[in-house]
Batch of 2 targets.
Target 1
Amino acid sequence: MDSINRQDGKRILDVTDLRTRFHIAEGTVYAVNGVSFHLNRGETIGVVGESGCGKSVTMMSIMRLIPSPPGEIATGQAYFEERDLLQLSDSEMQDLRGKDIAMVFQDPMTAFNPVLTIGRQLTEPLRVHLGLNKDECRHRAIELLEQVGIPDPSHRLGDYPHQFSGGMRQRAMIAMALACSPSILIADEPTTALDVTIQAQIVELVLGIRADLNMSVIWITHDLGVVAEIAERVLVMYSGFIVEEAPVDDLYEDPRHPYTQALLAALPRVDRRRDRHLQSIPGAPPNLLVAPLGCPFTPRCKFAFDHCRKEMPPIINVATNHTAACWWDVTTGKPR
Amino acid sequence: MADADSRSLPGNSSLVVVDDLKKHFPIHQGLIIEREVGSVKAVDGISFSIQQGETLGLVGESGCGKTTAGRTILGLYPLTAGDVTISGISLTNATKSEMRLLRRKAQMIFQDPYASLNPRWTVSAIIGEPIRVHNLLPNDKSRDERVHDLMLRVGLSPRLINRFPHEFSGGQRQRIGVARALASNPEFIVCDEPISALDVSIQAQVVNLLEELQDEFNLTYLFIAHDLSMVRHICDRVAVMYLGIIVELGEREDLYENPFHPYTQALLSAVPIPDPKRDRERQRIILKGEIPSPINPPGGCRFHPRCPVAMDICTTVVPIYHERAPGHWVACHLYPGSTPGRENSSAVA
């Protein structure tokens, strides 16, 4: 069925059973444990989860940015158009990275090279992928900075990253990602280091550009608020698994996985008077050094029963376009 | 505590009074002969008071001076001008022994649970330090018992008493930080972004703990944060800072339901709501530009370069911080009380 969907061209990215591990001195870190998802053309998906849930590692695996050793992509396929990214040679991947699929990182300070000017870094993809000459590069770079709303772009090209503020650096990073008009933009917590007012500017910018360029976007975040704003479909990750997936409205209105429910209940809201107490989730995320057995949320889950400890629940259709991986049916209050 | 109460003004139950507090950091230039060429006006005249048992939120963007304000209030930075009085003791003219008492009564919980605990000290040494420094308990045994009780109270297993910070998760480390702050039986705690480094599922745990402890020990909090949703949850009153000054202060519900200052309005509208339908309905104000440098803050109203409703007067005249509604203060020329010569019945501070 997957191949049929791929052929009709609706899916631009199709990932199946991705497993990524890191072999370190203390043992094996099970970072991603069989993740499958797809991205449609022109669609924006949000990937939500706490630190260590594997959301970044999943994307880095697809981009083939996992250092090996210690990293290892044990299984999986990631079809971009007709090609499996995980099978491409390094040079084929290099051709594609930044050109067809671009990435924006969380920390715009460390993602830029501090000793090269913004202009030099911004034109790199133009030179490497598009083979533009010096003048064309400069012209296009100015255009890009204008597009992301940096004032006086022709002057700012000669600046170094430290001369840009956090918000401007993130804009420049987005400009760099857009340089070759990629078909997929992967944004890894692009607003986490920024203030809310600047975050609102960046979200608006990406939403605008997405519409202009008809890009598909994967937005990784831990912030359920930002996802509500930007995504059409949301994947919730926990401990290297996708535990729930649904269209954005359904996920917030009718969360079916106990983790998603607990996460939403733990959030105070700026638009609501306070209720008595926040519903906290007991315990802490699991140790990834232990090979997963059963559902990883079991120790923190209020619905957990014996079976949860023994076997990881399969991903089940719980409603239209809405899947969850849980042995407990929260709507009926009974095990499945 | 009895002496503190007798010292504060009659009829005034404010535990903390901040009066026109300023903190400027000088900028030096020159290699051999250092000259002062300017200063970073991190905190440039803020005033408020906090009642016993109350939580005051201090919010604003990074660089607005909220952390500097918190640290200066505790005397961690020497203040440039103004005064702070905590439980009757004034920072500017406290004697050495009063200062010592103040350092016991006022504590701090830091933002980064990874950087604020000495990695070479055991939990027992970390939590026991305030007890040791202030000679609160006679011997090691009684101190260990107290540390044991504190660990239980903040939800850490006392079996871990001889462990080192790296053996704990972020949430547990923040609990150690909370236990350390509690060790000297403080009355006032400055919580400087205590949850922003924690995962969402852990944030609620720490916030609930802080609230329980407040009820149990009648603690007074200054809660510094940029997460406006959490501030609405935990604070009784909220002060909004912009570039070293307070632009608005009010009771929680007044401020969130009916914000006066355009900056507060923009700030609130920028906070994402975890509810896609609500989110699409609401009107958003997207501010242009970023917070300017506190070395040369803009003249007139400091917010005017980014303000969506700025008028001519805003570029030249500093708006007066006044009480526009009972308990709800604002500094903005949209309201006559802020413009010199136009103040009608509004009280002017």
Target 2
Amino acid sequence: MSSMAKKAPERIELLQGTLDMLILRTLLFGSSHGHQIGKHIQRTTNDLLQVQHGSLYPALHRLERKGWIASKWETAPDRNREFKYYRLTATGKKQLLTEESKWKQMASAVAQIMWRIEEK
Amino acid sequence: MKWRRKKQREEDLERELYSDLELEAEEQRESGLSPEQARYAARRAFGNPTLLKEEVREMWGWAWLDGLVRDFRYGIRQFGGNPGFTAVVIATLALGIGGNMAIFSVFRGVLLRSLPYQEPDRLVAVWQKDTARQQRDAITGGDYVDWKARNHVFQELAYSWDAAYTLTDSGDPQSLYAYQFSPNFFSLLGARPLMGRTFAAEDGQPGHDHVVVLSYRLWESKFGGDPNVVDRAIRLDGSPYTVIGVMPNEFAHPSTKVDLWTPLPFPNGLAQNRGLHAFHVFARLKHRVSLAQAQNEMNALARQSAQEHPETNLHRSAELELIRDTYVANVRPTLWVLQAAVFFMLLIACGNVANMFLARASTTEREVAVRLALGAGRWRLLRQYVMQGLVLSICGAGLGIALAFWGVGVLPQLFRDQLANLPLPNRAGAWMDWPVLSVAPAIAVLAGLIFGAIPALRSWTLSQEVLRAGGRGAMERLIAVRLRSVLIVGQVALSFLLLVGSGLLIRSFLRLQGQSLGFQTDHVMTFVLTFAPNRYSGLPKAASFLEEMVTRIRSVPGVESAASISTLPLTGMDARRPYVNPGEPATNERQQMVQYRVITPDYFHVMHIPLRSGRFFDDRDRQGSRDVVIINEKLARRLWPNADPIGKSLKTADLAKPEQREIVGVVGDVRHGGLTSEAPIEVYRPAYQAFWPFAGVVVRTSLEPTQVVRSIREAVWAVDKNQPVNDVRTMESLAADSLALRRASMLLLGAFAGLALLLASIGIYSVISYSVTLRTHEIGVRLALGARTTDVLLMMLGQSASLALIGIVFGLIAARALTRFLATLLFGITVTDAVTVVVAIVTMTVVAVSAAYFPARRASRVDPTVALRYE
């Protein structure tokens, strides 16, 4: 839906559900607003993953609906303006754990398959 | 409350996006961009904010509903801005859907109505067929007794015949149409009474048979729906009868005209009789016996009877018919044809709407391309267009339902008489029950989805070339033209098929009307009298009543002449009596039947039936004087092809044994059964010499016949105040009714064909217009290179004509395959009637070419300089 025709080849498209995990993971370090979350994901993955705004905001609202994150308008310490800050809820933390273990399982499964192909 | 939360959430989202956008811009500025560039970069990073908002909203849930409502509103608004398109589409769909619902509800109500019997598919009527005349008859007593004893395929057989009673209970004397059933008849059908009981075996014992079961209609009209009517005593023909039950409204065997049923003990006098075809016999098939197996067995039994009784049964076979067919076989072909025709019309209508949507799609393709480029989701676009399609089809369906409600009020009235065998609903609501009503939404949704998806699906294949090439997707447009041409060919083919069908019916009807009945129907009033046996037991009383009545009616102002006949023409009634062919030796004489009429002397005057030779009856022909008979031309030619029959004698039967009677006159032939029937051979006997228990009266008037009805009734009652006067009709309305089904099917099929033509011509018009627009450049080049305007005109007309011709070819193939179903509805022509086909081809071609004329003329007036600059 949101994929653009022109995209740098080295950038990786996010798998469905991966974005949710990345957001939850980002919020593990403390509450932050949408812009920060997007930037953080991009930075921590060495610009390998770029989050589209068109995916980020719907994802944030989806997670809030599920009750995994909560939001509050707060003044940013450095900007003197209010931003909508998201923080991880208790259920969100639990969800992150299961997502992570699922992710690891899948990653190892994918890795196994990929090695086999390379060995051949 | 919910609305406020929602609004708050909207504002919240707006604020969030705005603050983050600002932050992005600030960061960009801090990294060294100018404020202008920074804002631009931030916007680019964020993408389309409206789309973003929409996608977030979708996360909130229910957003899709909001979206649908919005698209729906948008659809309405859009079509409001294009009233011509909208009106044509809605009207087309309304005609298609409404027509289908109306016809289907009648089709279903008549042909698929559930019968109030147990396992009606195992109930059959048993007929005796005269293989020489190809005519069905009732069954003789002798054959009934034999077949009942010999067959192995029926659980049970039951017999019936019709009867008439005069109810002299209270108020005016009333003639009642009755059916006499064998005591097991109701239980054979498995029909349950509304109250009381039906006949039991003991009701068939002579002496115990004065019991009666009332029809719902009579119970309502004559007994006021009295819940205590059971056990009530009534007087029929002056004798006491006891009401034992009332049947429910949906029970009407064999016809809705029946007022009551009485039991009929088997008349022992008829047990050996093989000449009087008296009984209407019904039977229930045994379990695991198919109709074909039963028919095989009956064929064998009929052959056995023919061997045993060759003088009566040689040319007689037995024929079984499902009970449902006895009610609806007469209207089934017509209803099938109408249903098929109206379905074809729906296909044409849908083809047309699809065509219009395709045309519109080509005008919106730029809009679609722009929206796609701006990031609109393809599914999102599809949804919007589908909603637009649904808006139109729902409006069309709504209007169609209204049309159908009107239609079911009108349709059954068009052939009321032919539907008289089934109890049918008289409210539109009862015809339009839920299975019928669910047809409309089903068609509407399907049509809406398809039509709506057309522009969106086209956009699916649409690349951004549309934008880049400045609005020219030439290939895709050519594909669209081709698709639309296919639609046109289909429409032409179906329209042509309907044209041929309606043409055949119109030609048949005109042929019928060109036929002569053999008498004059205008200015003739008719009614029916039944002589109650207790008061008019025989000839002298009935004859003097008739003579006095005729004299009194003749003296009514506005009346020219009056007469009576035993069975009125055009009413479906006749009476046949045996006669002996004088040319054949008397010993192995085969029984021959002749139509038998008893008339008062003036009958031929009143009806304007011509005298061919000899004389009419007059006052001399009475009881006690010489027995005389008048025959018709057809019989005269058959018996004495080369001689004058006047003065010869003919052996004919009245109610009793055949006797020799002198022929005094020969009169013209009459199509007694209506225009579609052949004139029968007939003998006439004077009413003052021969008794018949009922009479039809014909009165020729100088005024409008309806103006003298009152005075005529009074004249009858002046002779006998207890004599009921029934079925008062003009002869013209009898004649019209006998053709009602044919007229109705001709008019309806004609209307469908007309509409189909109109729709097809609209389709052709729009396709040619579109192709003219597409080819403006090309036409400009042609004109610039020296083509004449007539060449261009002919080229465009040729395009239409070739589409029409291809359609006609397919239509001809379809017509060859399908018109044979019309065969039973035709008269005097065959389904391959060349005149009809040629007229249809010419009509179709003319319509196709004239529909293309205006756009073609536009093409021929293209200004080459403008056209070349057009791009």
